[in-house]
Design brief:
The chain has about 180 residues and is mainly α. The chain has helices at about 10-25, 30-40, 40-50, 50-75, 80-85, 95-105, 110-135, 135-155, 160-175.
Length: about 180
């Protein structure tokens, strides 16, 4: 079994958990599978995360942190709507991976915490857009446009060039709506 530096074990365990969730869903992401993927013992995993529920909480915390950083970057953008829609194309970024992994958790019958985290993130994006646009309904429309782009690109239904072209169309529509 490979050894990892102690400062990175927690992140490595979360990376392994995230990967297993993305690849095989909640059932595939057992404590033993996470430990094996991370190259640590099961005891080592349990030292950092006392249970599978603690792993889930750690992944949700990661999503919250990445989402907060993304929202802060949006707030600093000159054109928040354009930035938001352009970055809605799934790119395999750490935020994308965290979203997909938490969606996999949310699909499980026991996924209430994951569903709440995803809703909270969605609400935070809508609130930031509402603050900038001054129109809650318009902000919701932009979030829903973004969700469509993200879902289609994450599922592989959009190749990169087509996704870019469709974002241009959505930007024109957003401008006509007043964004």
């Amino acid at each position: 079994m490979a050894r990892v530096a102690s400062g990175t074990v927690r992140a490595q365990l979360l990376d392994a958990y995230e990967s297993l969730l993305i690849e095989g869903g909640e059932r595939a992401a057992t404590v033993q599978a996470v430990a094996d993927r991370a190259g640590v013992s099961k005891g080592g995993l349990l030292y950092h995360f006392g249970s599978k529920a603690a792993l889930e909480a750690g992944l949700i915390e990661r999503l919250d942190e990445l989402g907060a950083a993304d929202i802060q970057a949006l707030r600093e953008a000159d054109d928040m709507v354009e930035t938001f829609l352009r970055t809605s194309v799934a790119s395999g970024s750490p935020l994308d991976r965290a979203i997909v992994a938490v969606v996999r958790l949310a699909q499980a019958p026991s996924g209430a915490l994951a569903r709440a985290a995803l809703q909270r993130q969605d609400d935070d994006y809508a609130a930031a857009l509402t603050e900038r646009l001054g129109d809650e309904e318009l902000a919701l429309a932009i979030v829903l446009l973004s969700d469509g782009v993200y879902l289609r690109s994450a599922l592989g239904a959009l190749e990169a060039q087509r996704a870019g072209d469709e974002v241009e169309v959505l930007l024109r529509i957003a401008r006509r709506l007043g964004a």
